[in-house]
């Protein structure tokens, strides 16, 4: 790595905001001998451009011997972040590679077949005459030879040990704040009918019935490996498989690897990993085997993959705690803080707390938040809003109550299967609809008039029923627990203000958030602490569903109390009653102008982390994010 090249590698024609100073600080941190530099860069810093500049400092083939690592990786856990990179002309020299399931076969008659289910994956000895033109293998070949290869964190981790994607000189991880949690999530083994092809052929014990649940789970894992191997070997005797059989074979192989890794790590007395097991319904029910402190897993899948690392995020809150969680030596890690260039008055926080949203208080508080939402709709009659519901249970109850008040036509929601479709439909409309979201605190770009106000409905504490969370709290790790919630809050606050001249209001509805701010003050970035310090109580209109109906004051009763998802109900012009229909400038509460659309979707397309208390997304994994890389 040559840190002196970082500034010259910046891909834009000019710097904006604090970018030039940030790159100077990053350059100096690497020049001082640090192996890892944490870059705490707030929303709007242009982290992808900073990442490209850092990657440009990697050693080249001309500068090194054949045995030395060269070039760079760019990786991010967010699929949407990778999509943004693909669409950015300034980042066109990053070659993106995705998993096989994202590409279709080009053989005649197989054009709708994903590459991981194509004839080359189904037929023994199949000689593909067009492999050189295969979109997956072509992209992979180009990425493996390009100076900067870009991929999701899931793909990056799965290619550890690959002869194609070997160790490189520089690795840049964007949105790196959740690296430990992502590693735990990827290493978690979910055993249930949907993920275990031989589920009906095995007897699932109650692992907590006697002795150590983890020990009993390891014995069950060893037995399950034997059953999976026999089933896989039987499939391998066939000369040709159906697509379904190919998927079954691949899942069996993946499951065998997961279980063997768990048993080996659990029985290794030198391993730093602590394993915990969840099985809520006893014998015959699903089992989740989860690692804590996955430093060993990260060493193999991340830290052994490069010489120097840059980890970028707005919410790496505590350097020492972060380093402990991912297995890094803090003495070899530097933290660079990037100045926030968005005026604090453009991103105000407002205290509209209605009470606690903990499980025992929710029945009392949630109706108050529903009435608050009506008043906020009247405050913003011509502007789109977002309510972070935290869980589908909260979302459903808010949606029902707002529909009963006649506001169904101004409210849009989503479920687990249509979240991206409904999000994009909401973003595309120019009507002042309010979107009730679940788990959209990150990787969502709502610049300009896409959204001018949002509500934090509940403090996003992790689910204490999750064995990983419970174990840490038993060990007294309350500071970790609160930092995780604060991190999510800060991410959420960054959804609606995306540029220095953008502006939007964030309303705090759960009084537990005020306690969270008090207890995490020392972990807050200065720019977020400034927002908290300026927090005030706003003047809101009286409760009036008619005024909250938006344009024309028509709440538009939805038949049967159901919100209209189609977005086709017309409204007349002219807001009525209590709202602030006028456009006002930055720094004032209420309706504002400006901005244009953007696109984003959250998640890695695969396994999700543990849920949150009060009805969180518990859909599990529909497709394991690491399952489609190999199978050559």
UniProtKB/TrEMBL annotation:
Biased composition (Low complexity): 560-574
GO biological process, one term: nucleobase-containing compound metabolic process
Entries under Pfam families matching the protein: DEAD_2, Helicase_C_2
Keywords on record: ATP-binding, DNA-binding, Helicase, Hydrolase, Nucleotide-binding
UniProt biased composition (Gly residues): 549-559, 575-614
Chain ranges of the ATP-dependent helicase C-terminal domain: 392-515
Name assigned to this protein: ATP-dependent DNA helicase
Organism of provenance: Haloferax marisrubri
């Amino acid at each position: 790595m040559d840190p002196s090249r970082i500034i010259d590698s910046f891909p834009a024609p000019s710097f904006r905001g604090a970018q030039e100073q940030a790159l100077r600080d990053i350059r100096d941190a690497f020049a001082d001998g640090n192996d890892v530099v944490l870059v705490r860069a707030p929303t709007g810093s242009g982290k992808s451009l900073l990442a490209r500049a850092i990657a440009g400092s990697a050693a080249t083939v001309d500068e090194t011997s054949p045995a030395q690592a060269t070039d760079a990786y760019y990786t991010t856990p967010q699929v949407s972040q990778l999509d943004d990179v693909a669409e950015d002309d300034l980042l066109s020299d990053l070659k993106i590679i995705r998993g096989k399931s994202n590409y279709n076969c080009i053989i005649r008659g197989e054009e709708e077949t994903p590459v991981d289910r194509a004839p080359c994956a189904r037929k023994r000895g199949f000689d593909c005459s067009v492999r050189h033109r295969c979109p997956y293998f072509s992209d992979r070949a180009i990425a493996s030879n390009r100076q900067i290869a870009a991929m999701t964190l899931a793909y990056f981790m799965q290619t550890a040990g690959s002869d194609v994607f070997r160790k490189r000189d520089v690795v840049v991880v964007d949105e790196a704040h959740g690296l430990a949690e992502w590693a735990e999530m990827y290493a978690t083994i979910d055993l249930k009918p949907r993920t275990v092809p031989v589920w009906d052929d095995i007897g699932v014990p109650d692992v907590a019935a006697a002795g150590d649940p983890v020990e009993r789970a390891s014995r069950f894992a060893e037995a399950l490996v034997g059953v999976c191997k026999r089933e896989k070997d039987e499939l391998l005797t066939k000369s040709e498989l159906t697509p379904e059989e190919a998927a079954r074979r691949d899942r069996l192989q993946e499951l065998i690897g997961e279980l063997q890794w768990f048993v080996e790590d659990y029985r290794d007395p030198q391993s730093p990993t602590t394993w915990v097991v969840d099985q809520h319904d006893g014998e015959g029910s699903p089992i989740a085997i989860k690692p804590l402190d996955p430093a060993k897993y990260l060493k193999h899948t991340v830290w052994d993959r490069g010489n120097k690392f840059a980890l970028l995020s707005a919410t790496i809150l505590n350097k020492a705690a972060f380093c402990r969680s991912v297995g890094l030596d803090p003495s070899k890690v530097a933290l660079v803080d990037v100045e926030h260039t968005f005026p604090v008055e453009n991103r105000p926080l407002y205290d509209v707390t209605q009470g606690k949203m903990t499980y025992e208080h929710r029945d009392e508080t949630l109706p108050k938040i529903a009435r608050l939402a009506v008043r906020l709709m009247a405050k913003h009659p011509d502007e789109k809003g977002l309510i972070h519901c935290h869980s589908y249970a909260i979302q459903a109850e808010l949606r029902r109550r707002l529909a009963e008040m006649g506001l169904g036509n101004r409210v849009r929601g989503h479920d687990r299967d249509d979240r991206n479709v409904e999000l994009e439909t909401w973003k595309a409309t120019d009507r002042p609809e309010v979107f009730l979201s679940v788990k959209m605190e990150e990787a969502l770009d709502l610049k300009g008039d896409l959204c001018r106000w949002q509500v934090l409905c509940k403090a996003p504490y992790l689910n204490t029923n999750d064995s990983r969370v419970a174990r840490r709290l038993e060990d007294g790790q309350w500071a970790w627990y609160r930092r995780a919630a604060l991190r999510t809050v800060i991410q959420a606050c960054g959804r609606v203000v995306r540029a220095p001249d953008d502006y939007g209001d964030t309303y705090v509805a759960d009084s537990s958030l005020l306690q969270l701010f008090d207890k995490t003050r020392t972990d807050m970035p200065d720019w977020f602490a400034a927002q908290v310090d300026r927090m005030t109580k706003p003047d809101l209109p009286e409760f009036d569903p008619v005024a909250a109906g938006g344009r024309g004051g028509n709440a538009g009763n939805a038949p049967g109390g159901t919100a209209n998802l189609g977005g086709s109900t017309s409204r007349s012009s002219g807001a009525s009653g209590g709202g602030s229909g006028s456009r006002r400038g930055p720094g004032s509460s209420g309706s504002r102008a400006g901005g244009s659309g953007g696109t984003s979707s959250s998640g890695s397309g695969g396994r999700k982390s543990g849920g949150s208390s009060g009805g969180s997304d518990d859909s599990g994994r529909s497709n394991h994010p690491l399952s489609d890389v190999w199978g050559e």
